[in-house]
Recover the amino acids of this structure.
């Protein structure tokens, strides 16, 4: 998929992606010549189709997690392995569906967020991770979420 | 270049725009392929076990084949590509979960050290495999998810160095074509079938597809074509005599194995101990062992 600024005959550049949390997606592109911006809006089905490809619109900022797609898409994945163990061996503690773990450095960084919005910020990061099958939030994941969700300053 | 009839403007087409664009989607897909090839590069041979129809004993064949090869000292992986009807982990006695390691997520260990990955290791209990997504239109996006899941099982699992990776495909002629699109042609294909007249068309279609792919090592596994009387030990055909040879001849294939019907195949394999290990002297077990030797030597 390419976006072409017809007036300038230039390929538009990726600016940002928004995931409002209702399954839809908004991706903004801008023409490098005239700065005109346009937004691609997808419905939940289209968003799922894109995520099912295992790619990220706008490019990846961190390598994909192992089994990222399966982990984020299979219902009940976090509840463990059928007749097997309750979770993947080596994981520190069982997680409920959609629950994520915070690494020590990430938790420290969260403390720098003003207390009155800390809970909301933590929830936003948690939802971001859960939607992508990320089981542990690290400072790198926080950076990625800030960029993708427009959380600069959080 | 396309032209807007009203405005007369000429707009470059997708292929005329050399710039890959901001998406980098192509690069990401290329990277997925690279990781998959790297992982499969450590596998000696990929063996796809498929069937045109369900219920012909494909997974039991996969399990016994994997167990026999592993028991003979080979490093064997078994991937249950039947995402909606997973059974291979149970059949191979893999009861522990997957294991996280430095090289990715490690497979579960089954009997004789077979490395196993199956959806039934990831979904709890007997709950059906369900994918998260918007309600409705699941037929549009679920197949994309399933292809992605299979890709991840191949490329994200730390299989290590394997002599053979057994892929237990879901039933359906087109499943093999999808696998080839995703991961390239397997080294060996086993088509499992019952030697019935009803299977003739299905086997022929599968054979035609395989001929188009250029895969040379294709074996027909005729399953449940006869049974051995437990009292007198005399084998009796369950289908018209010579059915397997006739099917193979018409499809231009070679019969690699004829597995007699034995209720203990299902009974033992369902308990996590393939018959080839549970009772290796039974005729069906010997037939599976012979198939394994044929595969190893192919």
């Amino acid at each position: 998929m390419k976006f072409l600024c017809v007036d300038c005959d230039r390929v538009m550049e990726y600016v940002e992606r928004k995931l409002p949390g209702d399954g839809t997606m908004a991706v903004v592109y801008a023409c490098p010549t005239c700065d005109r911006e346009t937004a691609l809006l997808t419905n939940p089905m289209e968003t799922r189709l894109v995520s099912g490809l295992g790619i990220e619109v706008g490019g990846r900022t961190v390598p994909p997690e192992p089994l990222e797609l399966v982990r984020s898409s299979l219902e009940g994945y976090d509840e463990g392995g059928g007749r097997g163990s309750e979770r993947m061996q080596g994981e520190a503690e069982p997680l409920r569906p959609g629950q994520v773990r915070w690494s020590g450095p990430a938790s420290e960084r969260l403390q720098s967020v003003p207390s009155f919005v800390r809970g909301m910020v933590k929830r936003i990061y948690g939802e971001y991770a859960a939607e992508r099958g990320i089981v542990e939030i690290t400072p790198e994941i926080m950076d990625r979420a800030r960029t993708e969700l427009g959380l600069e300053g959080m | 270049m396309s032209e807007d009839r009203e405005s007369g403007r000429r707009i470059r087409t997708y292929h005329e725009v050399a710039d890959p664009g901001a998406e980098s989607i192509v690069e990401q897909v290329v990277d997925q392929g690279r990781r998959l090839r790297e992982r499969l590069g450590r596998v000696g041979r990929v063996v796809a076990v498929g069937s045109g129809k369900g219920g012909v004993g494909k997974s039991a064949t996969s399990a016994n084949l994997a167990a026999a090869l592993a028991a003979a000292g080979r490093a064997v992986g078994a991937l249950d590509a039947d995402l909606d009807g997973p059974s291979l982990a149970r059949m191979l006695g893999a009861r522990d979960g997957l294991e996280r390691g430095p090289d990715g997520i490690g497979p579960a260990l089954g009997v004789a050290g077979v490395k196993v990955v199956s959806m039934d290791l990831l979904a709890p209990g007997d709950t059906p495999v369900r994918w998260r997504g918007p309600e409705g239109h699941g037929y549009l996006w679920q197949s994309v998810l399933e292809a992605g899941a299979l890709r991840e099982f191949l490329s994200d699992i730390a299989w290590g160095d394997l002599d053979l990776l057994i892929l237990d495909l879901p039933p359906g002629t087109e499943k093999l074509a999808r696998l080839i699109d995703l991961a390239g042609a397997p080294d060996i294909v086993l088509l499992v079938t019952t030697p019935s007249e009803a299977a003739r068309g299905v086997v022929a279609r599968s054979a035609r597809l395989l001929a188009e792919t250029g895969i040379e090592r294709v074996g027909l596994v005729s399953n449940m074509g006869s049974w051995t009387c437990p009292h007198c030990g005399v084998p009796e055909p369950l289908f018209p005599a010579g059915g397997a040879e006739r099917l193979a001849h018409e499809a231009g294939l070679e019969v690699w194995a004829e597995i007699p019907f034995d209720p203990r195949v299902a009974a033992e394999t369902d308990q996590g101990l393939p018959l080839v290990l549970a009772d290796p002297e039974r005729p069906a077990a010997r037939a599976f062992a012979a198939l394994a030797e044929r595969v190893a030597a192919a």
Notes: Residues 45-297 of chain B form a domain with the Rossmann fold fold (CATH 3.40.50.300).
